[in-house]
Design a protein that fits this description.
seven-stranded mixed sheet; Rossmann fold; alpha/beta; globular; 48% helix; two-stranded antiparallel sheet
Length: 276
């Protein structure tokens, strides 16, 4: 495997930090550290986050024969749901060794280590053979790449013919004005974000067609607002977990995301593609 890009290394260092690990495990959703689907804006983050997993799983409806790769797998909550619910084999690829250790530990605790592999690595250089997987899965991870087109090329390479790719990603809206997302981009140390149009067009370059986008953009604001409320409600407790400075930076960043979402500059939802 080649050296990580600077963007990937920045994300790796962040998610390996003690403060980030404690925060995401404690507040963001536990096993599922991605944007949730809220039936009620006041709903539990964990419940809403798991609902996203369930919705995506229904779309691909895997069989026990299917082999699935989750790229940017975080703590592996989706992999455990898939392995337990559908009896399929799942590989987790993730760049944070700290998250991966927590993932492996939870797999052992839940008796799923024989169905779930956990690999340290980047989705810009997927360490698996061509045509290896029936389903590629990703949740709110590809934004951390500085070369999303390369990620899609890697997805197409490791998918079997007619394999499916289901994923979510916080994106800019297709009609987002130039420059307005700078506060968000600075917070996540990026120069650009993807968009629904980008993923559709770039995917087609690699034979990933039949693009479908279940637009759930209001859920992005719901989720970041829920996390911000949790920080405020549990401020004293969380300062003991991950420190005041970290929480203050997180709160400022969340407000930028919420403002951008309310202004119509962002997009989020469940996307699907199929390898032709």
């Amino acid at each position: 495997m080649g050296a990580y890009s600077e963007t990937v290394k920045t994300a790796q260092e962040y998610y390996n930090s003690d403060d980030a690990d404690r925060f995401y495990a404690t507040v963001w959703g536990g096993e599922d550290i991605h944007i949730g689907l809220y039936n009620d804006p006041e709903e539990s983050i964990r419940v809403a986050s798991r609902r996203t997993v369930e919705r995506m799983a229904k779309l691909v409806d895997p069989s026990p024969r299917d082999r699935i790769l989750d790229i940017g797998a975080g703590y592996g909550g989706s992999a455990r749901y898939l392995a337990q619910t559908f009896s399929c084999q799942v590989e987790c690829l993730n760049l944070s060794e700290v998250q991966n250790e927590r993932n492996r530990r939870m797999n052992d605790e839940q008796g799923l280590a024989d169905r779930i592999g956990v690999v340290d690595g980047s989705f810009e250089d997927i360490p698996f053979e061509d045509n290896s997987f029936d389903v590629l899965w990703s949740q709110d991870a590809i934004l951390h790449s500085g070369n999303r087109r390369k990620v899609l090329g890697e997805v197409a390479r490791v998918l079997k013919p007619h394999g499916r790719f289901v994923f979510t990603d916080p994106m800019q809206a297709d009609d987002c004005p130039a420059g307005v997302l700078q506060p968000v981009l600075e917070r996540i140390h990026l120069d650009t974000m993807g968009s629904p149009g980008f993923y559709k067009d770039a995917g087609e370059e690699f034979g990933l067609t039949d693009f479908r986008f279940d637009d759930q953009t209001p859920q992005l604001v719901n989720h970041y607002s829920a996390v911000l409320r949790e920080i405020t409600r549990r401020s004293d407790e969380l300062q003991e977990v991950c420190g005041r400075e970290y929480l203050e930076r997180m709160a400022r960043g969340l407000k930028h995301w919420i403002d951008a979402g309310k202004n119509g500059y962002l997009a989020w939802g469940i996307m699907q593609m199929r390898l032709s």
